[in-house]
Design brief:
By secondary structure, this protein is of the alpha+beta class. Helix content is 44%, strand content 25%. The protein is built from 10 helices and 26 strands. The protein has a 6-stranded antiparallel barrel with strand order 2-11-15-13-12-16. A 4-stranded antiparallel beta sheet has the order 3-10-8-5, with no helix packed on it. It has a 4-stranded antiparallel beta sheet with strand order 7-6-4-9, with no helix packed on it. Strand 14 and strand 15 (470-480) form a beta hairpin. Helix 6 (223-250) runs antiparallel to helix 7.
């Protein structure tokens, strides 16, 4: 039968007594519990854990080369690409390449028809040669022949002036004779003209001109105005004749040349007026005859006589006007000839003096300027001729060609690119601050895994590009492609060497630690690295911690060493670094043994520094470029 537990009031006194005892002796109870706890902890520490042992992987400080680099990616482009254009227009006569051909700088690609340009060059060469000969002639002293020729030229000018003076005198004489001949006929013509106009042969009761006018006035009222014109012309002729007749009567052949010239001019003017009066009178009679004939009026018999006389006067006066005009012009021409001959004589006399005294400095300089002008003209002509040839501006490839022989072209004929390529990569603002023009870079290609080329930084964008808050800069790296498989537009990765050192002390990056005083390493004393065996991973030894003893040295383990004394802290100054190594500027010497790693029995391998690394990698995995290694903060 199961036993049932029940609460009993009698139990209460027993519990109350225990509680009271503890309250009364609590100090003793607490002390006893503390002693029991310490004893339990000691027992656990002794029987419950295994002792740990710290081991160190040593590293011998040595002289090596080290490089610090940054990396970026981008694409390839041609280092230079231009559109080839003709500077002149013309017909293509030669095409020396086709698309895809490689050519050297200066090679002729296309030639236009050069015939007109070549002619310009020939003309310019001839002009230059002529100018040089003229300069050479000026620079040389005159020859006897040149002096004799100049003297003969002066003599000819003297004779020319004398001939002109004599010709002027002859012109005066001839002009006076011509005037005298005219005055043999002028009185008769003036008397006859007066008879025709004012005689009474048509109607005894009227002047002839009035009789002719009245004959047709009823049919032609305009005859009155015409008759008045005739009368006025006759009066002008009469006045001129009377004036010149008085002058002629007062002069002779021995009169002054000025008086004779005045007589000739007045005689010419008078004969011109008389000839005009004769003409107008003849026109008047012809008009009267035409009207009378039209209206069947009787023409007076005197008309025939008058008409015949006027025809004779017209012929005579025309001859005298022509003769007197020739005489007047001959005098003027002779006078001009004298002036011209005087100028010619003066010029030739001055030329003779200049020739004998040698070339003038101004003349020499002027001719030298002329030579330079001809040289410039020849140079311009040759440059124009060169424009008819389209040549390769640099070593490169004819990418496209859009012209054929026989075509007329003007402007772009194709595209030309250089063989040198440019890698255009982007870097973040941290990395680009350490990049400079001229630094060496290594290039690899996504499409060509077996190709690795060396280039040089050509330029760095002065202004960055911001994308989603990240600043990046473009960097151009030039290189010689060499491999025909490398094409513009390919993806490329670039590793730029921002710093390098040769034969400097280096240690593993993880070996360097830092604290408030700066950078330091742990140095192992009494450890011989050459005696330290590299772990034999093929070993079948069941005891991985098997040890061996080297006399005078610490115990050496295949997984590290346990030195006889604790590692010694040594302050160091660092230089450049990469992903694995760092330069030691001061604090260590070659051969020093330092701790590169620390290993515990629990199997955990730790770096030599309490933090992950003294040298973090700034710029890793940033947009626009990745820094794989960099400078070390001091």
């Amino acid at each position: 039968m199961a036993k049932t537990l029940r609460w009993s009031p009698n139990a209460m006194p027993r519990m109350s007594g225990l509680y009271g005892y503890v309250r009364t002796h609590k100090m003793y109870v607490v002390g006893a519990l503390m002693v029991a706890g310490v004893a339990a902890y000691g027992a656990y520490s002794y029987w419950g854990t295994t002792p740990t042992e710290t081991r160190y992987i040593p590293y011998a400080v040595r002289l090596t080369d080290i490089e610090s680099t940054v990396s970026g990616s981008g694409q390839l482009s041609a280092s230079n690409q231009i559109d080839l254009k003709t500077k002149v227009s013309g017909e293509v006569v030669y095409v020396g390449v086709k698309a895809g051909d490689s050519v050297r700088a200066g090679a002729t690609l296309v030639q236009l028809d050069t015939r007109s340009a070549q002619k310009s060059v020939r003309d310019a060469e001839a002009n230059l040669q002529s100018a040089k000969l003229s300069l050479q002639k000026l620079e040389q002293p005159p020859t006897n022949l040149e002096i004799l020729q100049a003297e003969n030229a002066v003599a000819q000018a003297v004779q020319g002036k004398a001939d002109a003076v004599e010709n002027l005198a002859s012109s005066y004489e001839s002009g006076f004779n011509t005037t005298a001949d005219a005055f043999l006929d002028l009185p008769t013509i003036m008397a006859g003209l007066n008879t025709v106009l004012y005689g009474h042969t048509v109607n005894t009761s009227q002047d002839n001109i009035n009789a002719y006018r009245e004959l047709v006035r009823d049919k032609d009222p305009g005859i009155i105005e015409l008759s008045e014109t005739v009368i006025a012309s006759y009066q002008d002729a009469r006045d001129s004749y009377d004036a010149v007749f008085d002058t002629y009567s007062s002069l002779s052949r021995t009169s002054s040349t000025a008086d004779i010239e005045r007589l000739i001019k007045e005689s010419y003017s008078a004969t011109h007026d008389i000839a005009e009066a004769v003409k107008r009178t003849a026109d008047f009679l012809n008009h009267v005859n035409d009207v009378a004939t039209t209206y069947d009026k009787t023409i007076p018999s005197a008309y025939t006589t008058h008409k015949s006389s006027l025809d004779s006067y017209t012929s005579t006066m025309s001859a005298h006007v022509t003769s007197l005009l020739t005489a007047k012009n001959a005098i003027e021409s002779a006078r001009v000839a004298i002036t011209t001959s005087e100028r010619t004589l003066a010029e030739r006399q001055a030329s003779l003096v200049d020739l004998k005294s040698g070339s003038d400095n101004i003349d020499l300089e002027s001719q030298r300027i002329s030579v330079r002008q001809r040289e410039n003209a020849l140079r311009d002509a040759k440059e124009t001729l060169a424009d008819y040839y389209v040549r390769a501006p640099f070593d490169g490839v004819m990418a496209t060609l859009d012209v054929q022989k026989g075509e007329s072209v003007s402007g772009t004929i194709g595209t030309f690119i250089t063989k040198s390529a440019v890698a255009e990569v982007t870097l973040n603002e941290v990395d680009v601050a350490q990049v400079a023009v001229g630094q060496v870079a290594t290039l690899t290609f996504d499409a060509l895994e077996d190709v690795e080329l060396t280039g040089e930084v050509l330029s760095i964008d002065p202004v960055g590009t911001v994308t989603q808050g990240v600043v990046s800069y473009g960097v151009k790296i030039g290189f010689k492609a060499g491999d025909a498989r490398i094409k513009p537009g390919m993806s490329v990765s670039a590793t730029i060497v921002i710093a390098s050192r040769k034969d400097v002390l280096t240690v593993p990056l993880a070996a360097v630690k830092s604290d408030r005083t700066g950078s330091y390493v742990d140095v192992l004393d009494g450890v011989d690295v050459p005696a330290f065996p590299v772990r034999n991973r093929a070993s079948t030894s069941p005891d991985r911690n098997a040890e061996k003893t080297v006399p005078g040295r610490s115990t050496i383990f295949t997984e590290g060493v346990v030195p006889a004394s604790a590692p010694r802290k040594v302050s160091v100054e660092t230089g450049i670094a990469n992903d694995t190594m760092v330069e030691i500027v001061s604090g260590l010497v070659a051969g020093d043994i330092i701790v590169s790693r620390t290993i515990t029995d629990a199997g955990v391998t730790t770096a030599g520094a309490p933090q992950t690394s003294l040298f973090p990698t700034p710029g890793g995995n940033r947009q626009g470029g990745q820094r794989t290694n960099g400078a070390i903060p001091r």
